[in-house]
């Protein structure tokens, strides 16, 4: 099957979002440009790691003087998009791997999501030739540092809005409690 490429340079909107209740949520990356909306499913941990690493990239850019901080630019804290995900919410693919980087020539942050292979495994981006017509579907987003800051703020908020962690083992607590491995399989309420 030929590879589908979804390219946004820059998108009007790029966000992480969820559908469902905590404990039963589906996480999405979503890019929009005009009427074109692309939604990619991913795991909560992928959203958390992407937000964390993107935040580290932005701090490194600021440290090197490449991109000013919001305070230095006079912008204050980044605007956090709190709107729901755009409709229609159709899964383009399930992300197996995420990459990010900085395009110094265009002064844009780059985020890529590649589909899982047929076995549900992540594909190493270093082994994937983007020009090959066969391969995993790809979402590529290039955005400003300010848009990346807004993405990080929203993604961090969405990840934190889930179930609280168990104080003993760190696993998510359900409203009825959970079987805690640190309590030798006994319930923790």
Question: Gist?
Answer:
By secondary structure, the chain is α+β, with helices and mostly antiparallel strands. The protein has three helices and nine strands. The model is unreliable at 69-75 (pLDDT under 50).
Give your account of this protein's structure.
Helix 1 packs antiparallel against helix 3. Mean pLDDT is 85; it is low at 69-75. Helix content is 21%, strand content 31%. Strand 3 and strand 4 (36-42) form a beta hairpin. The protein has helices at 44-63, 70-73, 145-160, and strands spanning 5-8, 13-19, 26-33, 36-42, 91-103, 108-115, 138-143, 178-180, 186-188. With 189 residues, the protein is an alpha+beta fold. The chain is globular and about 55 Å long. 27% of the residues are buried. The protein is built from 3 helices and 9 strands, in the order ββββααβββαββ. A 7-stranded mixed sheet has the order 1-7-6-5-4-3-2. Strands 8-9 form a two-stranded antiparallel sheet.
Strand order of the largest sheet: 1-7-6-5-4-3-2
Number of strands: 9
Order of helices and strands: EEEEHHEEEHEE
The biggest sheet, with number of strands, parallel, antiparallel or mixed sense and barrel status, is: 7 strands, mixed
N-to-C CA distance? 49 Å
Helix content: 10-25%
Quaternary organisation of the protein chains = single chain
């Amino acid at each position: 099957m030929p590879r589908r490429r979804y390219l946004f340079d820059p998108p009007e909107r790029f966000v992480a979002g969820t559908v469902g209740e905590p404990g039963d949520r589906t996480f999405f990356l979503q890019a929009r440009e005009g009427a074109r909306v692309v939604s990619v499913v991913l795991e909560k941990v992928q959203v958390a790691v992407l937000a964390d690493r993107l935040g580290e990239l932005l701090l490194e850019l600021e440290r090197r003087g490449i991109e000013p901080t919001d305070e230095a630019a006079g912008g204050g804290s980044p605007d956090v998009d709190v709107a729901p995900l755009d409709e229609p919410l159709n899964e383009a693919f399930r992300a197996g791997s995420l990459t990010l980087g900085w395009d110094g020539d265009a002064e844009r942050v780059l985020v890529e999501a590649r589909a899982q292979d047929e076995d549900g495994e992540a594909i190493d981006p270093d082994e994937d030739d983007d020009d090959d017509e066969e391969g995993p579907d790809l979402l590529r987003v290039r955005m400003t540092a300010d848009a990346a800051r807004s993405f990080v703020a929203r993604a961090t908020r969405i990840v934190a809005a889930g179930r609280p962690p168990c104080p003993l083992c760190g696993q998510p607590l359900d409203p009825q409690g959970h079987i805690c491995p640190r309590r030798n399989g006994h319930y923790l309420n």
